[in-house]
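Predict both folds.
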Amino acid sequence: MNFNYLKLKKKNSSYVIAEIGVNHGCSIKKAKEMISLAKKGGADAAKFQTYKANTLAKINSKAYWNLSKEKTKSQHQLFSKFDKFDKEEYEILAKYCKRINIDFLSTPFDLDAVDFLNPLVPLFKISSSDITNYPLLKKISKTKKPILLSTGASSINEIREAVKIIKSGTKKIVIMHCILSYPTTDINANLNMILDLKKTFPNYVIGYSDHTTPDKNMLSTTTAYLLGAKVIEKHFTFNKKLKGNDHYHSMDVKDLKVLKSNIYKLYKILGIQKKKIINCEFKSRKFARRCIVAKKHLKKNQKIKEQDLITLRPNTNGVPASSWDKVIGKKLRNDIPPNKELRWKDIYI
């Protein structure tokens, strides 16, 4: 299992989820191919969505997504297209994930799904749309497994109430910043909300579930990691040019590789948090720091003036430049030739 909550609480760690959702189009073969692509791209988990249209939406349920991208005007109608997988299919996919060493995840949208997914997943993901679905939250919390809680379109108080319910079963909670808009425009991404979630919920891991259209540098998800999101979830497709459903705001394997590369590089360059001198700086510290040097010949017992001195690199054993004010006005114990560094033994202190 790749998911480790305690490890995620440490600095600079990450867990990347390729959210396949239903982009497989109800094909086991395609789903397996996408799992393989997710593994190839470096994802820690391949995630699906488990629902039945009849237990998810009313028959007359208005769409809330961008109809120019996904033309289906009814939630029930759209979900009906992609609710063909049952327990057996998810067992096949979970087994395949285990074989190639990538975590299998799936978001349950009803109580029955929780039951048959429980033996298959290392953790549960709760959709933003279900943050106030308390029966589902209670059911999932009773599994005592770690929970990723998406917070799109939610107030802080709604998040607090959901966390209160969940922590009755588990305290391993990841609070996911999310904007519930498909696709999310850059101006609406509001990644700074990650900082507010970190401040408001300091005892929990913070993550990010992204719905922006990916750019070639994967800037949105990379920035989320930089701001402190340890779990990064992004919709995943085998072809970004496909119309409808979630393909239009999904990353592909090339994007996933860029994201993983960015995170790996950031992991290295972010480094330690506490400011201190590190090993590679000691040589530079020695040879790039300045000492106080005589600009001209200085005589014994002469009172030192600013115009007599200059600061030059390196400072091997001389009076450091930081002691400039301590030297000015003092008398010399002996002659100092030009370009010679001053030493404490040369000065009456």
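Second protein follows, with its predicted structure tokens after the sequence.
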Amino acid sequence: MMNEKDKGLAQAFAHRVRELFPDATVWVFGSRARGDAVPESDLDCLIVLGQPTRQADIAIRDIAWEIGFEEGIIITTVILGKEEFERGPMSQSTLVANVLREGTSI
């Protein structure tokens, strides 16, 4: 289970993402979502957008850098389109399976 500091960081990140992309779904997965992170662990986030673009990718990575920098934690991002996440080839990937199994939608 995610600790309160990580949850707050994830919520701040998700809030900033949704300011620009209101339809975004933000998932946190990996060691911080499971609650077994070490201090050097990153915060893994999967962002699902209706129509991802290069500009959206850049904006989300900038938000991740700003939010993470303030807390001394690297936020890594994976951005997928909704169709790709739900029905495309990525929907059958181990990444998406792990996100759905161990992740938390913020």
